[in-house]
Every structure is written in C-alpha cells, then in structure tokens.
Amino acid sequence: MKYAVKLIGGLLLVLVLSGVVNLRAEEKKPVKTENQKTNDHCLNCHAHNYFNYDNPVAKKQVKHKMEPGMKIDTVLFYQSNHKNFKCTDCHSEDFAKWPHSAEVRMEPKMICIDCHGGDEKYAKFQFEKIEAEFALSTHATKHGGDFNCWTCHEPHTYKISARNDSIINKIIACDNNICLSCHNNINKFELISSSEKPNIIAKHDWLPNQARHFQNVRCIECHAHVKDSLLVAHNIQPKEKAVKLCQECHSKNSILMSSLYQYQLKSKATGLGFDNEVILNSSYVIGANRNIYLNKISIAIFLLALAGISIHTILRILTKKQQHGK
Q: For residue 295, what are the domain limits?
C-alpha cells in the first residue's frame, strides 16, 4: 500500500511538472502578426527546399526543387529591416496566385527610391543622393537595368549595419562581403557579366600587406568616388580609376576620414596630439596618425643636430686657420 501511494504521488508530480513545462513553452511561443500570417501563404513554398504542385498533364501532385535564388530564409527575413512588410507590399498581388504567370514573373523589381524617395521620415539616409550617385557608377552605366539596389543588397535579408555598429571591423566585414558575394561568386557574377570572374587576390598583388588591407579597409574606400555628405559611397568607379596611391590613405588628409571613419568623427579625441585620432580606436595607419608632439620633438632634434654639425664645421675651419697662421 505504501509503495502504491508513492507511485501515485510520483505520477502526479510528473504530470504537474509536464503541465508547467507545456505552459512555459506556450508562453515562449511567438505570436504571429497579421502580416506574418499573410506571408505564410508565400513562405509555405518559398521557405523550403521543395514544394508541391498539381500537374494537370501528369494528373498528379509533383514535388519540385525550389531554386536557391527563390528560397527565403525566414529567420534572416524576420531580423531584417523589412521584417514588418508583407510579401505583396513589394510584389504584385498576382504573385499570391499559383502558378505564377509569365507576365507576373517579368514585372519590374521595386528599388529603394520607390518606397523611400521624398519621405521626410527617411531623409537622414539620403536615398535620393544615393540614387544619383549609383546612376553615375560603373555598375549602372555598364549593366543598365540588369543592375539595381537588390543586386548588392538582398531585400529579404538586408539589415543596415554601418550606422548602427560601432565596431569598425564588423562594418568592414559586412560591406566587403557584399562586394565579394558577387565578385567572388562565379554563379552570381555570370548573371550580369560575360567576362571571366576576376581573381581578387591576383588583381591586388600590387598591394603591400594585402591581407592586412583586406581586413581593415572596405573595397569602396579605393573603388568608389567618395562624397563627404554620404556615409556610404555608391558611385563605384571603373577599375582603371581605383585608388592606388598610398598617400591617399597614409597622410594627414586621409580619405578614410571622409568615408570609413566619417560617422565616428564626433567621437571624443584622445587628447594625445595624434592626427585623425578617431582612426586609433581600431588601428594605426602609418602617415595618417602622425603625432603633433613627436613631430615637434623630431624637428627640434633635427635642428639641434644641424646646429651641432654647423658649429663643429665652423670650429674645424677656425682651428685649421689658426694652425696655418702659425
């Protein structure tokens, strides 16, 4: 009897604990918004590797592989800047019907300016200036309509970083990955160019300490026309106009101050007398981080040395004259 009571008590304890666990699991389960529920209609296919559809010719349901470019990572999408959008905010309502017609598939893609242009709420991002810069870039002039915002910035995962992240190396890695996602990916590169994919390492073999530069400088520092009013340059220049002069960065007037470090210019100075002190928060750039006091000390030492040599020379001359006079 005693064992039966213990057994029943144990079972009741297990049931109670399992009920508590289930309640907590339900509490943690995220509640979907109305837009997310609407998006499920699209994501039932586009969030998976495979999708099913009825084939009227074969008269059966067919399983088909989803094209990689058409697959949406829902985790990244709901972390992106567009997480609160419905699919049909950017895509035609006709896309809600399956199968998608050929006319719908060929509809022009919306770009940033279509939604954000002329909106005071987004004025600080300067979309109009970005659009004007992009129109002058080699991407736009060489590839035309085949190249748009989304060629570099995947709309389903895009998450702004340059204005939110204070760690320079994270910004560099994020921005360079955007460039390399095409220039180091033959499948994507061939979508817009018939040229052979360039060998990034070989093309930059002239650059000293190549790996160090790749880790600490963005591609656009050398390959874009820098405009002080923009935090991120979009006027990408032809390769012939890329910066190749060391002094462009390694000098007191370093172009890094009007591009990569522009948004940090309001940071507190160290007060140690360095030029471009904000750069020292993450790295030391030879020539760009001169120290005022060291410069003065160096000049003083040079002048003292010059004075010493001059005095020594004069004394030698006078000594010889005295010797000859005797």
A: 291-326
